[in-house]
Amino acid sequence: MRRATAEEIEQAALLRGFSDGERGGYEQGERAGGEAVRKHLESVLQSLGRLLEELESLRRREARNFEKELVELVLDVARKVVGQESDRPAGRRGPPAARCLAESSIPARS
């Protein structure tokens, strides 16, 4: 069996050190990159959560506004119908629902 020369031993150690360093550096970089991505995703998810909360709040506020406007529109239409019915002679008035509206206490809109 032939003995390795000092140069061959040195070359083998250099290659093994390079290989170990490359593998270690790759693994370290992969861990660091994974951690950076995880932190970024957490930040993005928190921002999305806040955005969803704001959108839900906006949806509720707009639904309330829409409901108020719809009620006002219905009351305006009812007032007009009642006004038209009350202008007709008694014998030519519409169905009982219109008479009920005419007799109700729906306040006039100012």
Structure commentary:
The relative contact order is 0.05. The chain has one domain. With 110 residues, the chain is mostly helical. Helix content is 82%, strand content 0%. The termini are far apart.
Topology:
Elements: H1 6-87, H2 96-103
Helix pairs in contact: 1-2
Features:
110 residues; mainly alpha
Structural class: mainly alpha
Cα distance, first to last residue? 113 Å
- As a whole number of angstroms, the C-alpha radius of gyration is 41 Å
Main pleated-sheet profile: none
Shape annotation: rod-shaped
Q: Low-confidence parts lasting 5 or more residues at pLDDT below 50?
A: none
What share of the residues does DSSP label as strand, in percent? Answer: under 5%
Number of domain modules: 1
Helices and strands, in order, run as HH
State the oligomer.
single chain
Number of helices: 2
Would you tell me the overall average pLDDT? 80
Count of beta strands: 0
Helical amount among residues, as a percent range?
over 70%
